Fold this sequence. Notes:
The complex is a heterodimer. By secondary structure, chain A is an all-alpha fold. Chain A has a single domain, classed as Cytochrome c-like domain (Cytochrome Bc1 Complex, Chain D, domain 2), CATH 1.10.760.10. Chain A has helices spanning 2-23, 36-54, 78-83, 86-99, 115-127. The N and C termini of chain A lie far apart (69 Å). The model of chain A is unreliable at 16-29 (pLDDT under 50). In chain B, the strands form four sheets. Chain B has a two-stranded antiparallel ribbon. Chain B has helices at 2-26, 29-44, 48-55, 108-111, 114-117, 126-130, 148-153, 163-174, 177-180, 199-202, 205-213, 215-218, 231-242, 248-258, 265-274, 303-311, 313-316, 329-342, 360-372, 415-424, 442-453, 478-486, 489-492, 510-513, 516-524, 544-557, 578-587, 610-613, 616-624, 642-653; strands at 64-66, 72-74, 282-283, 286-287, 494-495, 498-499, 595-596, 599-600. By secondary structure, chain B is mostly helical. Chain B is flat and about 120 Å long. Classes of the chains: A mainly alpha, B mainly alpha. Chain A binds chain B through residues 22-26, 28, 30-32, 34-38, 40-41, 44, 48-49, 52-53, 63-64, 67-68, 96-98, 103-112, 115-116, 119, and chain B through 32, 35-36, 39-40, 43-44, 90-92, 96, 99-102, 143-144, 146-147, 161, 163-164, 532, 586-589, 591-593, 599-603, 626-627, 632, 634, 636-639.
Amino acid sequence: MRRRILLIAVILLLFASSCRRANRPASAAAVPPPTQYELQLGKQVYQSYCIGCHGDSGAGDGFNAFSLDPHPRDLGDPVFQKGKSNADLADAIRRGGAGVGLTSLMPPWGHTLDDRHIDAVVLYIRSLRR
Amino acid sequence: MTLRRLFAFSSLVFLIVLAFSPVKNALRPYRALQRQFRLLGISRATSAKAREMYSSRPIAIEQIWLPELNDHVDRCTTCHLGVADAAMTGAPQPFRTHPPTFHTPQDIQRFGCTACHGGEGLATDQADAHGTSPDATTPIFPTDFVEAGCGRCHDADAVRDAPTLSSGRALMAKSNCFACHKARGHEDFRADAPPLDTLPMKTGAEWLRRWLTDPKAVDANATMPNFQLTGDDIKALSHYLFGRTVPPQLQHAIDLAGAEPPGDSARGKTLFAESRCISCHTVDGKGNGSAPELGKIASRASRGWLVAFVRDPHAFYPQTRMPRYSFTDADVRDIVAWFEDELRDFDAPANILVPLRVNQTFAEKGEKLFKSAGCFACHGGMKEGERFGPDLYGIGEKKATSLDFGKRTDLKRTLPAWLEAKISTPRSFATGLKMPTFAFDAAQKRAIVTALLAIPSTPVPDAYHSAPPQQAAIVPAGAVGEIMSRYRCLSCHQIGSRGGDISTAPLTFEGSKVNRDWLVRYLAVPYSIRPIIAERMPVLKVSKEEAALLADAIAMIYVDPSTPDDPFAGRPASDRDTAEGERLYTTFGCRSCHIIGKNGGYYGPPLTETHARLKPGWVFRFLQNPQRWRADVRCPNYGMTDTDALRLTAYLETLAEAPAPPVPGAGKEAVK
């Protein structure tokens, strides 16, 4: 009799522990990697609107860059990338240089691009980090 | 007694069987997932109300019913509980928020999930829902080909926000897939490969042998695929092609041109450069690449043929996109002289352009091959009902088990893998297959497979069907139409929904955009408005009379009624404040892309000549919304007020270069 109770108890315990594991919520902190579609969309936007000044690799060496003072931002710079949140980047794209207290040579894109295009291009800019 | 026992026993069995159903239901994986989601929601909730919402969530099947989409039912949200829940951004799958797209999150109730992603909407078990087994009817589109879903409803060649699908569709058209394969919407497709009847006077047997062996190796811009012909096949085809009769007038023209004295090569070089041939052609890989490579042209075609062709390409090749330049006879001689001096294959054997002496037996064999290999599908002669490739109707919904993998035991048994192998090495599946080999790279293959997966067996219901809006394309008849056809304006420019995409300037509303007198000068001697663009308007040698006629017609026909003639009419005088306009020019940072005087960037057109070139009403409307006429215009929309746009227009209108010389026909009343 005692052995049977023990057996049932063990089974119950195992069951409970397995339930606990299954139900434990995963950590919420991790930001998922961008989907291939988002990156592709971001790349398309970047190559349409940004490449002229910021260049193919984001180094600020587009064909239009030489005539600009201040020089276009090197988007691949790890220090710059680390210092700005996605929201900062999106804000600068949306409101332009003048909107965030920098040069007006960087135009505001908030009336031209949808929010999701801006978010996608931010993800693409993240992928340009050296 | 035995009977009673038996009854008791069977009742017990019955009860157990009966109990099995609810137990099975209670153990279904989605229930555990929903409990997991409940805890996840509670842990992520930021308010007591949200926490309450998650904890009171019933454990039940969720579904989206779409009565207008063939009574479609999607139960995907039974497990994918967070698709439209912003709090689930970055959550582990299956709970993660759907990434934002054109239709999500706002349209989830309208489209459900499987309309875009494929998969079996009714299933609540992962394997069935995603269709991972080979006999699944509608397996989910792999993420590589996710844009295929867009193409199920969107018919347009270019679908916004679906770059892979759009490039796949463009590639399929360019590769002439529909010349052999029937597909919905492409029933009238005609390949525009050149007619071959002047070939005997154009090239030599050795060049043709090289071309038929591998067109891409001869010309990187070639759209003709590799038919993997054997030496015997090539021999037979060559005899057939060299045995064709050249039409008498063309034969005469080629003979005469060939007998002309040699031209001035140095002058030809200059002419070639200023004619901007590389806006379509390439020379040693430099140029647009939508027309043949010219780096070795003199070893590809005979002198007489080249001279006669450049003088009148339309007589040789009626559907060509090449304009008929108004060159003088000497101009063409000079250009071809330069070809012969510089643009030749210096490694080619001396006999590269020596024609073949035709053997009738081989020629007859070649004629049969021309038909059986399918050459006629692109090179003319294809009649309706003769398309011999398998229909592409429903190719995107073929079951993996119904596909013939033939010799390809190495492939994954899925439709995308089969399609990709089909377009990579079509003849590897069995012997005797006809489809030629195209040289697509990995990205191009992915794009084409996406476009193929987008082809459903039955079109979506009208409520979900999205056809591109068709914009009227007016091309006048008569003298103007003839000029436009002669110079092939539509090869590069768009008019309404027709035309090519080489030029960034559609002509649809050109009459409201530019001043007539400027246009007359420009047509006679075009120059580069945006110097950074390699594809520049060719100097077509348009005569002054033609230019005036064309400019008058454009001013009259290609007009946008919503563009005012005088944007300042009825506005306060302060809207003409040019000083304020100049200040705005600086504030908006226009000079990062535009040049005024000596300062500014090279991205947009220089604005120094605004007054001469552009109409103020158009400038005003453009400043209000640069994407008004063409969605991919790069100039940002600054969300300007009308007053700001007018002031900036007023300032730009003050900019003018030295007065231009008078123009013939200027001030003449437009033809009524």
